Amino acid sequence: MLNNDNEDEYIPTWEDLPIYKKGKEILEVVTQIIDLIPEDNQELGFVKNIIFEDALMLTAKVANAEGGDLYDLRMENAAIIRKAARDLMIQNHNLDLFDFKYVEYYDIIRDLLEEYRLLFIDWVAGFDKFNYIVDRWGLFNPPGIGPFDENPDDLY
Fold it and tell me: Which residue numbers in the chain have pLDDT < 50?
């Protein structure tokens, strides 16, 4: 994205993040693999849909987290990403269970997910713990903040 004040200055967006780029790479490989699933196999068709939805989460939720910018929203999206990635990691078992002919290709996805996991750790570590609203459910507050604490903006 170009800066409006300076036409030559590029401002990075969420699409430039290494975790987003790795998520896109995973989605591309997932798409290539699930395209090999025969249309007439109902069980594998169900697994195909799950795999595709989980792969989509790896990019969509990064974009949501970056757009929201608040710590609690970022952590909520990070939790969804983690679940989708963990679910993707084990889908090779379902492919094998339903006799997918090319299940060994899924090892590529598993290797890419490990790379994604390492990027995920760095990405989450960079969340601003001071930019938050209190999560009244108590799940996604920064360390030391509880669900009954006041919001920082309410203190002024």
Answer: 2
